[in-house]
Task: structure prediction
Amino acid sequence: MSKRSFASDNNAGVHPEIIEALKAANDGHVLAYGGDPLTQRAIEVFQKHFGQDVAVFFVYGGTGANVLGLQAITHSYEAIVCADTAHINTDECGAPEKYTGCKLLSVHTPDGKLSVEHIKPLLYGVGVEHEVQPRIISISQATELGTVYTRNELETLARFAHDHNMLLHVDGARLANAAVSLDASLKEITADAGVDVLSFGGSKNGAMYGEAVVFFDKKLAGDFKYIRKQGMHLPSKMRFIAAQFETLLSGDLWRRSAAHANQMARVLASELEKVPQIKLTQLVEANGVFATIPAQYVSALQQKYFFYVWDDETYECRFMTSFDTTEDDIRDFVAFVRETVK
Result:
């Protein structure tokens, strides 16, 4: 097995329980495109977690979930407000703007979290035909900087959005990590907080692939089944995505995996803090650790344990932990850091 690194939780393998679920799903013939019993069971599990009235649609990946979910609730003359670090702004190759037609209004935040104060100045053109019309507040939970919105912060954003004829969209690629961090249920930090549309991630929490778009008001789903098909995200063998989510959510696998990743991030942060030349830059609230490392050491460290430099000017680096990160992985890495950073 190749050495575990700290580059991304996407780099991790598939949880053994998910592998077993995929094997079990690989039995005989069933109707394609979601017409199978497994898909129905998985949707029912989502409804148990998020509410009986939610509409759930499975797609291949996170970018597709974000883009199609946003496309379903916007017009092309509208705008999507997001943090400048948001995945839709930095890592989706312009797909949100291409497929929604909307302008992204990105806001700089020191911790990746949007607030009402960030959004208010962007509403100056509401009702003005020369201006794009802000329609969506899109946040990541947990954020791309590893921070987590509290329940109060979520409720405040949702209330502000609804008071201003806007909707709240959540990129929940790491929602499980956020829920564990807050000691909350998935529903408490989505439906109960006023979230309108969610992209729920599986691949960063032990799944092989697959995400879900969740509409908390079925009316918002509208013609989403056609949008999904036209957007090339209708899986023919949907049972294999459904089987993964059923396994993740039927018991506590989603929580166990996220809790372990979060704990490993705290251990990693604690050990890195002991190296005098390394400084943590963000609170460690989920499974990401951000720290500055003297520039002259970064390349040598990356040769053995690859990770990403988040900010090329300050050499702020990102380290992600996963469901399969071990304390031995951390111990070996930190020992190498101590040998290198002197």
The CA atoms of residues 80 and 99 lie 13 Å apart. The chain has a mean pLDDT of 97.
